[in-house]
UniProtKB/TrEMBL annotation:
Cofactor: Mg(2+)
Protein name, as recorded: dITP/XTP pyrophosphatase
Keywords: Hydrolase, Magnesium, Metal-binding, Nucleotide metabolism, Nucleotide-binding
Sequence similarity: Belongs to the HAM1 NTPase family.
Cofactor: binding details: Binds 1 Mg(2+) ion per subunit.
Amino acid sequence: MKLIVASHNKGKINEFKALLEPLGYEILSASMLDIDMSGVVEDGLTFADNARIKTKFLSDITGMAVVADDSGLCIESLPDILGVHSARFMGEDTDYQIKNNEVLRLLKDKENRNAYFHSSISLYGLGVDEIFEGDVHGVIADAIQGEGGFGYDPIFVPNGYDQSFGTMDSDLKNKISHRAIALKQFIEYMKENS
């Protein structure tokens, strides 16, 4: 089955491919279809709202089923900084090395470093409008760890592990991540409704 991923984020597209292609899905992206999504305004109040905005936009253009993730890092002691604004924190074009260093600076004197990544996946089109969600809890590291993953991965250490997503093997990350949890629900839905 063909699915369009409503994203230009290569990291997200690669994660979707790694998780879904072994199950027989052909993953297309907006850029593969020469569709520019830069004008899509993600002004929803929740991750689910923003994911649906992207899938509806692309499905309305293509008439195909579209999947999109909206995800972000939520930090207990900095509740208004990231969350649904994670990608836009300090500007969308700001390098994540700079963003990660700023988060570490803001947390320098905070005892509570608890955080979680959240993912909302929207499946929209061909009469379907579903949301699947997942969280992975952990803490913010004291320093940037590794260069793997993308975004805030190098500063996030999931509970039960002593390494950040930035140093973790991608296969392991793809099994325990917030997106993997949400995708597991999505895959179960697809199996039940195919």
